[in-house]
Amino acid sequence: ASQTASITLLPCSGPSVAAFRDACRTRGVLVGRPFPPLTTHVRISIGTLDELRTAMPVLRAALAEVPEARG
Prior knowledge:
Layout: E1 5-9, H1 14-26, E2 42-46, H2 49-65
Antiparallel strand pairs: 1-2
Helix pairs in contact: 1-2
């Protein structure tokens, strides 16, 4: 059984997807490419509780930096 949970965020425009991914990357969390036709979505897979604990503050900070990504 997989130990990965997926979280999907809905940015409101294509450019905000790239800005959100960049904001996460600069904080050490990698976010994958868009998944057509859901190019206004960001899919984030987190495998362990420790990864979740690392990712959540980064996701919050990235959303604060790129408010248009909140959808």
